[in-house]
């Protein structure tokens, strides 16, 4: 005897798995393209320095659960014009800065290059 429900399963499941596969691969490709584009834009940007002060610090925990957790570190600077810029930096650099520090911010596009604190 012919089971119509079985035919649907053998037809729909491979299509569903194929759609999921395309979505996952597409997301990976789009993420990689965005990363390469940002890297290229930063390389094309001039290296700049401006006076500013540290107005906030934050961390973001990624992963955990079934995978290894790691921290990402962010600093927000306020420049003389009142504009604010947030940069991702390494933990060692993050630990050396405190809210209220004033100095020269060095950057290239969205890439943080360093901070020279005024004494």
TrEMBL record:
It comes from the Bacteria. The chain crosses the membrane at residues 12-33. It holds the Pfam family DUF2500. InterPro entries: DUF2500 (IPR019635). Keywords: Membrane, Transmembrane, Transmembrane helix. This is DUF2500 domain-containing protein. It comes from Bacillus coahuilensis p1.1.43. The lineage of its organism: Bacteria, Bacillati, Bacillota, Bacilli, Bacillales.
């Amino acid at each position: 005897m012919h089971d119509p429900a079985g035919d649907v399963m053998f037809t729909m499941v491979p299509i569903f798995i194929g759609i999921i596969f395309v979505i996952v691969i597409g997301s990976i490709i789009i993420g990689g393209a965005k990363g390469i584009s940002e890297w290229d834009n930063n390389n094309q940007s001039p290296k700049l320095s401006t006076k500013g002060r540290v107005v906030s610090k934050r961390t973001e925990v990624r992963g955990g659960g079934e995978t290894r957790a790691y921290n990402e570190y962010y600093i927000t600077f306020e420049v003389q014009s009142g504009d604010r810029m947030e940069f991702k930096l390494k933990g060692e650099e993050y630990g050396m800065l405190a809210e209220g520090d004033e100095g020269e911010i060095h950057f290239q596009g969205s890439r943080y290059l360093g901070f020279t604190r005024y004494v």
